[in-house]
Design a protein that fits this description.
The protein is mainly beta. The protein has one domain (about 1-65): NifT/FixU-like (OB fold (Dihydrolipoamide Acetyltransferase, E2P), Beta Barrel). About 0% of the residues lie in helices and about 50% in strands. The chain has strands spanning about 1-10, 10-15, 20-30, 35-40, 45, 60, 65. The protein has a seven-stranded antiparallel β-sheet with strand order 6-1-2-3-4-5-7, with no helix packed on it. Strand 4 (about 35-40) and strand 5 form a beta hairpin. The protein is globular, with a radius of gyration of 11 Å. InterPro entries: NifT (IPR009727), NifT/FixU_barrel-like_dom_sf (IPR024044). This is Putative nitrogen fixation protein NifT.
Length: about 70
């Protein structure tokens, strides 16, 4: 699923165009963001691709959704 990751004044945010949903990222598995899971405020969890730590934001990536937060 395509997910756009960007940095806002409040921290990291994820936008899912297919669902027209933007939520703050509340939990990171890896400090450098890439190659691990992230949890959105609504409970959705995504596995992000393994990219270099200095990857510039905003960026749209292909992420795998692993949880609906239910």
């Amino acid at each position: 699923m395509k997910v756009m990751i960007r940095r806002t004044d409040a921290g990291l945010s994820a936008y899912v165009p297919k669902k027209d949903l933007e939520e703050p990222i509340v939990k990171l598995e890896n400090e450098d963001l890439w190659g691990g899971t992230v949890t959105l405020k609504n409970g959705w969890r995504f596995v992000l691709p393994d990219l270099p730590p200095d990857t510039r934001l905003p960026i749209t990536v292909e992420a795998r959704k692993i949880s609906d937060g239910v």
